[in-house]
Amino acid sequence: LAKPIKYKLIGYQRTQDMIGEWPKKLRIEVKKAVVKAAIVDIETPAKMKLTTDGHVDTGRLRADIHTEYEGSSRRELGKIGELDARVGTNVEYAGYVERIDEYLTWAYRKGVPKLRNAIAEAVHNFARR
Amino acid sequence: LDLIFECQKALFSALQSAITTVTISDEIDDNEDYPYICLEDTRATKKNTHNYKGKEILFIFGIYTKAAPGAGTYQVKTLLSQVCEALDLKIFSLTAPAKMKSCEFQDSNSVNGKEVKAIQAVFKVIAYEQ
Question: Which residues of B touch A109 (CB under 8 A)?
Answer without folding.
Answer: none
